[in-house]
Amino acid sequence: MRWPRARDGAAWALPVALAVDAVGTGLYLPLSMVYFLSVTDLSEAGVGLLLTAAVACSLLLPLLVGRIVDRIGPRPVVITGLLLQAAGFSLYLGVAGPVSLFLAALVEAVGLRVYWSSVFALIADQADGEARDQWFARAGMIRAAGTGAGTVLAGVLLALASQQAYRGMVLADAISFVVAALAVGLFVRGARRPAGTPDGQSWDGVRQLLRNRPYLGLIGVNVLFNICTVFLAVAMPVYVSRGLHAPGWVVGVLLTITTVVVATCTAEVTRRSRQFTSRGGAMAWGGWLWAAWCAAAALAVLLPQGPLLVGYLALVMLLWAAAEMLHGPASNALSAEAAPKGVRGTYLAAFQYSFATADMVTPGLFGVLYDVNRVLPWAAVGCLALTASMAIRPLERRLSSGAASQGTARAAEVVD
After folding, report:
1. Which is deepest, 7, 81, 208, 272, by most CB within 10 Å?
2. How far apart (Å, rounded) are the C-alpha atoms in residues 381 and 319?
3. d(C-alpha 117, C-alpha 269), whole Å
4. How far apart are CA 394 and CA 182, in angstroms?
5. Which residues neighbour 91 within 8 Å (Cβ) at sequence distance 6 or greater?
6. pLDDT tens figures, 236-270
7. In whole angstroms, what is the distance from residue 371 CA to residue 415 CA?
Protein backbone atom coordinates (compact mmCIF):
# COMPACT_ATOMS: atom_id res chain seq x y z
CA MET A 1 0.00 0.00 0.00
CA ARG A 2 1.48 3.36 -1.02
CA TRP A 3 0.96 6.10 1.53
CA PRO A 4 0.99 9.84 0.79
CA ARG A 5 4.26 11.62 1.39
CA ALA A 6 5.01 11.92 5.10
CA ARG A 7 7.66 13.27 7.41
CA ASP A 8 10.55 10.93 8.21
CA GLY A 9 9.50 7.31 8.72
CA ALA A 10 5.86 8.02 9.51
CA ALA A 11 4.76 6.45 6.21
CA TRP A 12 5.43 3.00 7.66
CA ALA A 13 5.68 3.55 11.44
CA LEU A 14 2.19 5.01 11.81
CA PRO A 15 0.55 2.18 9.84
CA VAL A 16 2.39 -0.30 12.11
CA ALA A 17 0.98 1.41 15.20
CA LEU A 18 -2.52 1.58 13.70
CA ALA A 19 -2.40 -2.10 12.71
CA VAL A 20 -1.20 -3.24 16.14
CA ASP A 21 -3.95 -1.28 17.88
CA ALA A 22 -6.60 -2.56 15.46
CA VAL A 23 -5.58 -6.22 15.87
CA GLY A 24 -5.41 -5.74 19.63
CA THR A 25 -8.90 -4.27 19.65
CA GLY A 26 -10.20 -7.09 17.46
CA LEU A 27 -8.77 -9.60 19.92
CA TYR A 28 -9.81 -7.74 23.05
CA LEU A 29 -13.52 -7.37 22.35
CA PRO A 30 -14.35 -11.08 21.87
CA LEU A 31 -11.67 -12.50 24.19
CA SER A 32 -11.78 -10.26 27.25
CA MET A 33 -15.00 -11.65 28.74
CA VAL A 34 -14.02 -15.29 28.09
CA TYR A 35 -10.49 -14.77 29.39
CA PHE A 36 -11.58 -13.12 32.63
CA LEU A 37 -14.20 -15.80 33.22
CA SER A 38 -11.52 -18.47 32.79
CA VAL A 39 -9.05 -16.93 35.29
CA THR A 40 -11.51 -15.77 37.98
CA ASP A 41 -14.55 -17.12 39.82
CA LEU A 42 -16.68 -14.14 38.80
CA SER A 43 -19.99 -14.48 36.97
CA GLU A 44 -20.75 -13.05 33.54
CA ALA A 45 -22.65 -10.19 35.17
CA GLY A 46 -19.77 -9.43 37.52
CA VAL A 47 -17.18 -9.35 34.75
CA GLY A 48 -19.44 -7.28 32.51
CA LEU A 49 -20.10 -4.66 35.19
CA LEU A 50 -16.40 -4.35 36.03
CA LEU A 51 -15.48 -3.89 32.37
CA THR A 52 -18.24 -1.31 31.90
CA ALA A 53 -17.10 0.58 35.02
CA ALA A 54 -13.51 0.65 33.75
CA VAL A 55 -14.58 2.10 30.39
CA ALA A 56 -16.87 4.64 32.08
CA CYS A 57 -13.97 5.89 34.22
CA SER A 58 -12.01 6.73 31.06
CA LEU A 59 -14.70 8.80 29.34
CA LEU A 60 -13.60 12.11 30.87
CA LEU A 61 -10.06 11.82 29.49
CA PRO A 62 -10.29 13.17 25.91
CA LEU A 63 -10.39 16.89 26.73
CA LEU A 64 -7.53 16.53 29.24
CA VAL A 65 -5.55 14.55 26.68
CA GLY A 66 -6.30 17.23 24.09
CA ARG A 67 -4.79 19.92 26.32
CA ILE A 68 -1.66 17.83 26.78
CA VAL A 69 -1.42 17.31 23.01
CA ASP A 70 -1.62 21.08 22.46
CA ARG A 71 1.14 21.60 25.00
CA ILE A 72 3.70 18.94 24.05
CA GLY A 73 2.48 17.64 20.68
CA PRO A 74 0.65 14.40 19.80
CA ARG A 75 3.67 12.08 19.31
CA PRO A 76 4.60 11.50 22.99
CA VAL A 77 0.92 11.17 23.90
CA VAL A 78 0.37 8.49 21.25
CA ILE A 79 3.41 6.63 22.56
CA THR A 80 2.04 6.87 26.10
CA GLY A 81 -1.31 5.47 24.96
CA LEU A 82 0.39 2.50 23.30
CA LEU A 83 2.54 1.79 26.36
CA LEU A 84 -0.48 2.01 28.66
CA GLN A 85 -2.26 -0.56 26.52
CA ALA A 86 0.84 -2.78 26.73
CA ALA A 87 0.77 -2.37 30.51
CA GLY A 88 -2.94 -3.20 30.60
CA PHE A 89 -2.45 -6.45 28.70
CA SER A 90 0.52 -7.30 30.93
CA LEU A 91 -1.69 -6.82 33.99
CA TYR A 92 -4.17 -9.26 32.47
CA LEU A 93 -1.69 -12.04 33.19
CA GLY A 94 -1.99 -11.35 36.93
CA VAL A 95 -5.79 -11.08 37.14
CA ALA A 96 -7.21 -13.34 39.83
CA GLY A 97 -10.17 -11.43 41.29
CA PRO A 98 -12.40 -8.36 40.95
CA VAL A 99 -9.82 -5.77 42.09
CA SER A 100 -7.03 -6.95 39.80
CA LEU A 101 -9.52 -7.33 36.94
CA PHE A 102 -10.80 -3.78 37.35
CA LEU A 103 -7.29 -2.32 37.54
CA ALA A 104 -6.13 -4.19 34.44
CA ALA A 105 -9.24 -3.19 32.48
CA LEU A 106 -8.92 0.41 33.68
CA VAL A 107 -5.30 0.71 32.51
CA GLU A 108 -6.26 -0.80 29.16
CA ALA A 109 -9.27 1.54 28.79
CA VAL A 110 -7.21 4.60 29.73
CA GLY A 111 -4.52 3.63 27.23
CA LEU A 112 -7.12 3.16 24.50
CA ARG A 113 -8.71 6.53 25.25
CA VAL A 114 -5.34 8.32 25.37
CA TYR A 115 -4.31 6.74 22.07
CA TRP A 116 -7.48 7.57 20.13
CA SER A 117 -7.62 11.08 21.61
CA SER A 118 -4.18 11.88 20.17
CA VAL A 119 -3.50 9.68 17.13
CA PHE A 120 -5.70 11.72 14.78
CA ALA A 121 -3.76 14.86 15.69
CA LEU A 122 -0.54 12.99 14.86
CA ILE A 123 -1.98 11.83 11.53
CA ALA A 124 -3.12 15.39 10.76
CA ASP A 125 0.47 16.58 11.31
CA GLN A 126 1.76 14.34 8.52
CA ALA A 127 0.10 16.01 5.55
CA ASP A 128 -1.92 19.03 4.54
CA GLY A 129 -4.85 19.57 2.19
CA GLU A 130 -6.20 16.64 0.18
CA ALA A 131 -3.28 14.38 1.18
CA ARG A 132 -4.84 14.37 4.65
CA ASP A 133 -7.93 12.63 3.26
CA GLN A 134 -5.73 9.83 1.93
CA TRP A 135 -4.02 9.44 5.29
CA PHE A 136 -7.36 9.09 7.04
CA ALA A 137 -8.64 6.75 4.32
CA ARG A 138 -5.69 4.42 4.70
CA ALA A 139 -5.96 4.62 8.48
CA GLY A 140 -9.56 3.45 8.17
CA MET A 141 -8.52 0.61 5.88
CA ILE A 142 -5.87 -0.59 8.31
CA ARG A 143 -8.27 -0.31 11.24
CA ALA A 144 -10.91 -2.37 9.41
CA ALA A 145 -8.44 -5.02 8.26
CA GLY A 146 -6.69 -5.23 11.63
CA THR A 147 -9.89 -5.45 13.63
CA GLY A 148 -11.20 -8.13 11.28
CA ALA A 149 -7.96 -10.12 11.56
CA GLY A 150 -8.03 -9.83 15.34
CA THR A 151 -11.62 -11.00 15.45
CA VAL A 152 -10.83 -14.03 13.28
CA LEU A 153 -7.81 -14.88 15.45
CA ALA A 154 -9.95 -14.53 18.56
CA GLY A 155 -12.41 -16.99 17.03
CA VAL A 156 -9.59 -19.52 16.54
CA LEU A 157 -8.48 -19.12 20.14
CA LEU A 158 -12.03 -19.46 21.42
CA ALA A 159 -12.35 -22.70 19.46
CA LEU A 160 -9.20 -24.01 21.19
CA ALA A 161 -10.72 -23.14 24.60
CA SER A 162 -7.24 -23.22 26.15
CA GLN A 163 -6.28 -20.91 28.99
CA GLN A 164 -2.63 -21.23 27.95
CA ALA A 165 -3.53 -20.06 24.43
CA TYR A 166 -5.39 -17.09 25.91
CA ARG A 167 -2.40 -16.14 28.05
CA GLY A 168 0.00 -16.52 25.14
CA MET A 169 -2.06 -14.17 23.01
CA VAL A 170 -2.36 -11.64 25.84
CA LEU A 171 1.43 -11.64 26.22
CA ALA A 172 1.90 -11.29 22.45
CA ASP A 173 -0.51 -8.35 22.46
CA ALA A 174 1.47 -6.63 25.22
CA ILE A 175 4.74 -7.08 23.34
CA SER A 176 3.24 -5.85 20.05
CA PHE A 177 2.09 -2.60 21.68
CA VAL A 178 5.63 -2.01 22.95
CA VAL A 179 6.96 -2.58 19.41
CA ALA A 180 4.40 -0.11 18.03
CA ALA A 181 5.41 2.50 20.63
CA LEU A 182 9.07 2.05 19.68
CA ALA A 183 8.24 2.45 15.98
CA VAL A 184 6.43 5.74 16.61
CA GLY A 185 9.11 6.95 19.01
CA LEU A 186 12.03 6.20 16.69
CA PHE A 187 10.63 6.97 13.26
CA VAL A 188 7.78 9.52 13.55
CA ARG A 189 8.49 13.20 14.03
CA GLY A 190 5.74 15.62 14.93
CA ALA A 191 5.30 19.03 13.33
CA ARG A 192 6.50 22.12 15.17
CA ARG A 193 3.86 24.17 16.94
CA PRO A 194 3.22 27.55 15.31
CA ALA A 195 4.65 30.51 17.22
CA GLY A 196 2.22 32.46 19.35
CA THR A 197 -0.26 29.63 19.82
CA PRO A 198 -1.67 28.52 23.19
CA ASP A 199 0.71 26.41 25.26
CA GLY A 200 -1.90 23.99 26.62
CA GLN A 201 -1.34 25.17 30.22
CA SER A 202 -4.71 26.91 30.48
CA TRP A 203 -8.26 26.09 29.49
CA ASP A 204 -8.22 28.66 26.66
CA GLY A 205 -8.50 25.90 24.06
CA VAL A 206 -11.53 24.38 25.77
CA ARG A 207 -13.23 27.77 26.13
CA GLN A 208 -12.54 28.49 22.47
CA LEU A 209 -14.02 25.13 21.54
CA LEU A 210 -17.16 25.74 23.61
CA ARG A 211 -17.68 29.07 21.81
CA ASN A 212 -17.23 27.47 18.38
CA ARG A 213 -20.82 26.56 17.58
CA PRO A 214 -20.15 25.21 14.07
CA TYR A 215 -17.55 22.75 15.40
CA LEU A 216 -19.84 21.67 18.23
CA GLY A 217 -22.50 21.20 15.56
CA LEU A 218 -20.08 19.01 13.61
CA ILE A 219 -19.60 16.83 16.69
CA GLY A 220 -23.36 16.57 17.16
CA VAL A 221 -24.07 15.73 13.51
CA ASN A 222 -21.27 13.18 13.51
CA VAL A 223 -22.97 11.42 16.43
CA LEU A 224 -25.88 10.72 14.07
CA PHE A 225 -23.55 9.44 11.36
CA ASN A 226 -21.65 7.26 13.83
CA ILE A 227 -24.87 5.70 15.11
CA CYS A 228 -25.22 4.31 11.59
CA THR A 229 -21.69 2.89 11.84
CA VAL A 230 -22.22 1.28 15.25
CA PHE A 231 -25.69 0.08 14.28
CA LEU A 232 -24.17 -2.55 11.98
CA ALA A 233 -22.50 -4.50 14.79
CA VAL A 234 -25.36 -3.94 17.24
CA ALA A 235 -28.36 -4.65 15.00
CA MET A 236 -27.33 -7.10 12.29
CA PRO A 237 -26.59 -10.16 14.47
CA VAL A 238 -29.93 -9.89 16.28
CA TYR A 239 -32.00 -8.85 13.27
CA VAL A 240 -30.61 -11.51 10.94
CA SER A 241 -30.71 -14.43 13.38
CA ARG A 242 -33.84 -13.58 15.39
CA GLY A 243 -35.78 -11.14 13.23
CA LEU A 244 -35.27 -12.90 9.89
CA HIS A 245 -34.58 -16.40 11.31
CA ALA A 246 -31.55 -16.87 9.05
CA PRO A 247 -28.80 -19.38 9.95
CA GLY A 248 -26.18 -18.15 12.39
CA TRP A 249 -23.35 -18.37 9.85
CA VAL A 250 -25.00 -15.70 7.72
CA VAL A 251 -24.03 -12.98 10.20
CA GLY A 252 -20.36 -13.91 9.90
CA VAL A 253 -20.54 -13.84 6.12
CA LEU A 254 -22.17 -10.41 6.08
CA LEU A 255 -19.67 -8.88 8.50
CA THR A 256 -16.80 -10.41 6.53
CA ILE A 257 -18.09 -8.80 3.33
CA THR A 258 -18.12 -5.33 4.87
CA THR A 259 -14.68 -5.81 6.45
CA VAL A 260 -13.06 -6.91 3.19
CA VAL A 261 -14.65 -4.13 1.13
CA VAL A 262 -13.78 -1.35 3.61
CA ALA A 263 -10.26 -2.69 4.13
CA THR A 264 -9.45 -2.76 0.41
CA CYS A 265 -11.44 0.02 -1.28
CA THR A 266 -11.57 3.00 1.09
CA ALA A 267 -8.56 4.87 -0.31
CA GLU A 268 -9.79 4.64 -3.90
CA VAL A 269 -13.34 5.65 -2.95
CA THR A 270 -11.96 8.63 -1.02
CA ARG A 271 -9.74 9.71 -3.92
CA ARG A 272 -12.60 9.57 -6.42
CA SER A 273 -15.15 11.24 -4.13
CA ARG A 274 -12.85 14.22 -3.58
CA GLN A 275 -12.77 14.75 -7.34
CA PHE A 276 -16.46 15.61 -7.53
CA THR A 277 -17.54 16.72 -4.05
CA SER A 278 -16.31 18.27 -0.83
CA ARG A 279 -15.74 16.48 2.46
CA GLY A 280 -19.14 17.52 3.71
CA GLY A 281 -20.62 16.35 0.41
CA ALA A 282 -19.00 12.94 0.85
CA MET A 283 -20.44 12.73 4.36
CA ALA A 284 -23.89 13.66 3.02
CA TRP A 285 -23.68 10.96 0.36
CA GLY A 286 -22.70 8.52 3.09
CA GLY A 287 -25.82 9.45 5.02
CA TRP A 288 -28.05 8.96 1.97
CA LEU A 289 -26.52 5.52 1.42
CA TRP A 290 -27.00 4.61 5.07
CA ALA A 291 -30.66 5.60 4.79
CA ALA A 292 -30.96 3.39 1.71
CA TRP A 293 -29.24 0.58 3.64
CA CYS A 294 -31.76 0.89 6.45
CA ALA A 295 -34.71 0.86 4.05
CA ALA A 296 -33.36 -2.16 2.17
CA ALA A 297 -32.64 -4.07 5.37
CA ALA A 298 -36.16 -3.38 6.64
CA LEU A 299 -37.64 -4.72 3.39
CA ALA A 300 -35.84 -8.04 3.96
CA VAL A 301 -38.78 -9.14 6.14
CA LEU A 302 -40.79 -9.55 2.92
CA LEU A 303 -38.42 -12.19 1.51
CA PRO A 304 -38.69 -15.94 2.20
CA GLN A 305 -35.90 -17.72 4.06
CA GLY A 306 -33.25 -19.32 1.90
CA PRO A 307 -30.56 -18.42 -0.66
CA LEU A 308 -32.53 -15.46 -2.01
CA LEU A 309 -32.58 -13.81 1.41
CA VAL A 310 -28.85 -14.41 1.97
CA GLY A 311 -27.93 -13.02 -1.47
CA TYR A 312 -30.16 -10.00 -0.95
CA LEU A 313 -28.58 -9.23 2.44
CA ALA A 314 -25.10 -9.55 0.94
CA LEU A 315 -25.96 -6.88 -1.62
CA VAL A 316 -27.53 -4.71 1.07
CA MET A 317 -24.28 -4.79 3.04
CA LEU A 318 -22.49 -3.14 0.13
CA LEU A 319 -24.62 -0.04 0.76
CA TRP A 320 -23.32 0.13 4.34
CA ALA A 321 -19.73 -0.37 3.18
CA ALA A 322 -20.03 2.39 0.57
CA ALA A 323 -21.46 4.78 3.16
CA GLU A 324 -18.71 3.98 5.63
CA MET A 325 -15.98 4.53 3.04
CA LEU A 326 -17.42 7.91 2.09
CA HIS A 327 -18.09 9.14 5.61
CA GLY A 328 -15.12 7.94 7.67
CA PRO A 329 -12.11 9.63 6.01
CA ALA A 330 -14.12 12.74 5.09
CA SER A 331 -15.36 13.30 8.65
CA ASN A 332 -11.90 12.94 10.19
CA ALA A 333 -10.31 15.19 7.55
CA LEU A 334 -13.04 17.83 7.94
CA SER A 335 -12.68 17.84 11.73
CA ALA A 336 -8.90 18.23 11.42
CA GLU A 337 -9.19 20.99 8.81
CA ALA A 338 -11.72 22.93 10.89
CA ALA A 339 -9.64 22.72 14.08
CA PRO A 340 -7.34 25.73 14.71
CA LYS A 341 -3.71 24.58 14.61
CA GLY A 342 -2.76 25.89 18.03
CA VAL A 343 -5.53 23.95 19.79
CA ARG A 344 -5.99 21.11 17.30
CA GLY A 345 -5.36 18.51 20.00
CA THR A 346 -8.26 19.79 22.11
CA TYR A 347 -10.60 19.95 19.12
CA LEU A 348 -9.78 16.48 17.76
CA ALA A 349 -9.98 14.96 21.23
CA ALA A 350 -13.43 16.51 21.67
CA PHE A 351 -14.40 15.12 18.26
CA GLN A 352 -13.87 11.64 19.71
CA TYR A 353 -16.96 12.20 21.86
CA SER A 354 -19.03 11.76 18.71
CA PHE A 355 -17.79 8.16 18.58
CA ALA A 356 -18.12 7.53 22.34
CA THR A 357 -21.67 8.94 22.40
CA ALA A 358 -22.73 6.73 19.49
CA ASP A 359 -21.22 3.70 21.22
CA MET A 360 -23.27 4.42 24.34
CA VAL A 361 -26.56 5.39 22.67
CA THR A 362 -26.91 2.80 19.91
CA PRO A 363 -27.41 -0.42 21.93
CA GLY A 364 -30.16 1.13 24.03
CA LEU A 365 -31.82 2.74 21.02
CA PHE A 366 -31.88 -0.55 19.16
CA GLY A 367 -33.08 -2.59 22.15
CA VAL A 368 -35.98 -0.30 23.02
CA LEU A 369 -37.23 0.04 19.44
CA TYR A 370 -36.73 -3.62 18.55
CA ASP A 371 -38.97 -4.63 21.46
CA VAL A 372 -41.75 -2.62 19.80
CA ASN A 373 -41.22 -3.88 16.24
CA ARG A 374 -38.28 -5.51 14.46
CA VAL A 375 -38.41 -2.96 11.62
CA LEU A 376 -38.74 0.16 13.78
CA PRO A 377 -34.99 0.52 14.58
CA TRP A 378 -34.20 0.61 10.87
CA ALA A 379 -36.78 3.34 10.27
CA ALA A 380 -35.40 5.42 13.16
CA VAL A 381 -31.75 5.12 12.16
CA GLY A 382 -32.62 5.82 8.52
CA CYS A 383 -34.29 9.06 9.61
CA LEU A 384 -31.21 9.99 11.66
CA ALA A 385 -29.02 9.40 8.59
CA LEU A 386 -31.23 11.65 6.46
CA THR A 387 -31.20 14.36 9.13
CA ALA A 388 -27.41 14.27 9.32
CA SER A 389 -27.10 14.39 5.51
CA MET A 390 -29.27 17.51 5.30
CA ALA A 391 -27.41 19.24 8.13
CA ILE A 392 -23.79 18.63 7.12
CA ARG A 393 -23.54 20.78 3.96
CA PRO A 394 -24.63 24.11 5.53
CA LEU A 395 -22.54 23.22 8.55
CA GLU A 396 -19.50 22.66 6.33
CA ARG A 397 -19.98 26.12 4.80
CA ARG A 398 -20.01 27.68 8.28
CA LEU A 399 -16.88 25.76 9.24
CA SER A 400 -15.13 26.86 6.04
CA SER A 401 -16.05 30.52 6.53
CA GLY A 402 -14.90 30.31 10.14
CA ALA A 403 -11.55 28.83 9.11
CA ALA A 404 -11.14 31.54 6.47
CA SER A 405 -11.86 34.24 9.05
CA GLN A 406 -9.29 32.78 11.43
CA GLY A 407 -6.72 32.67 8.62
CA THR A 408 -7.39 36.35 7.76
CA ALA A 409 -7.08 37.32 11.40
CA ARG A 410 -3.76 35.49 11.74
CA ALA A 411 -2.48 37.13 8.56
CA ALA A 412 -3.45 40.56 9.92
CA GLU A 413 -1.62 39.83 13.15
CA VAL A 414 1.52 38.95 11.18
CA VAL A 415 1.32 42.21 9.15
CA ASP A 416 0.83 44.24 12.31
Report:
1. 81
2. 14
3. 26
4. 43
5. 100, 103, 104, 107, 108
6. 888 988 899 988 788 878 888 888 898 888 888 98
7. 63
